[in-house]
Design a protein that fits this description.
Layout: H1 8-37, H2 39-53, E1 58-64, E2 70-76, H3 92-95, H4 98-105, H5 113-119, E3 123-125, E4 151-153, H6 168-181, H7 184-200, H8 219-222
Parallel strand pairs: 3-4
Antiparallel strand pairs: 1-2
Helix pairs in contact: 1-5
Length: 223
């Protein structure tokens, strides 16, 4: 749809584009600054992981981003590669180390995603990038979460964080609400709420689970 100049729609679209530009500049500028400031901490964590678990230092996995484009997603490794007698990986809860638990509880395992933000794969705020296999399990409405850049934190995370992972449809509703109501002000609010959650170490993990429960598809899609 083409907006006619000097109409409310034209000016609203112009303001929205300006906010997107500011967000783009903010993301990369702040990511670069924080990476430099936190480089000693990042190096220290990398050394600690190497000493306790060896290589690899990072957990790297393909994830879908803006418009479903696949990128390499980075986190600090928090689990060992221990296997049973049948050469199968042990359950996640048994492979999660004390160091890994600490990194997750303090959200320090997310620091490598600053590189994703600097590269332009992610933003500081947006729907969390999930597994590639989920792309074919979304309903058309749920797939709209890819209309914006994925983020390190998001509206769903500050409204339940990992606890919401067992209620996927509610989580996706929050993601779509963010897509429809996005503004710089909302991003700043989410960042502020995220800082509060991290400081209070609130809603980090689900009780009885080391990792998120898998999304098998929406009941609405199966009807």
């Amino acid at each position: 749809m083409r907006f006619i100049k000097n109409t409310p729609y034209f000016y609203n679209d112009m303001i929205l584009n300006l906010q997107r530009t500011v967000k783009w500049i903010f993301d990369r500028s702040v990511a670069a600054i924080v990476l430099i400031l936190f480089s000693p901490l990042i190096l220290g964590i990398a050394i600690a992981i190497y000493r306790r678990m060896g290589r690899p230092i990072f957990f790297v996995q393909p994830r879908p981003g803006y418009r479903g484009r696949i990128f390499q997603f980075y986190k600090f490794r928090t689990m060992t590669s221990d296997r049973d007698i049948n050469d199968e990986l042990l359950p996640d809860s048994q492979r999660l180390t004390k160091l890994g638990e600490f990194l997750r509880r303090t959200s320090l395992d997310e620091l490598p995603q600053l590189w994703n933000v600097l590269k332009g794969d992610m933003s500081f705020v947006g729907p969390r990038p999930l597994l590639v296999v989920y792309l074919e399990r979304y309903t058309p409405e749920q797939a709209r979460r890819h209309e914006v850049m994925p983020g390190i934190t998001g509206w769903a995370q500050v409204n339940g964080r990992r606890i919401l992972d067992q209620f996927w449809e509610k989580k996706f509703e929050l993601d779509i609400w963010y897509v429809d109501h996005w503004s710089l002000g909302l991003d700043l609010k989410i960042l502020w709420m995220t800082i509060g959650q991290v400081l209070h170490q609130k809603d980090i993990t689900q009780q009885g689970h080391a990792t998120s429960q898998e999304f098998m598809g929406s009941s609405k899609r199966m009807l």
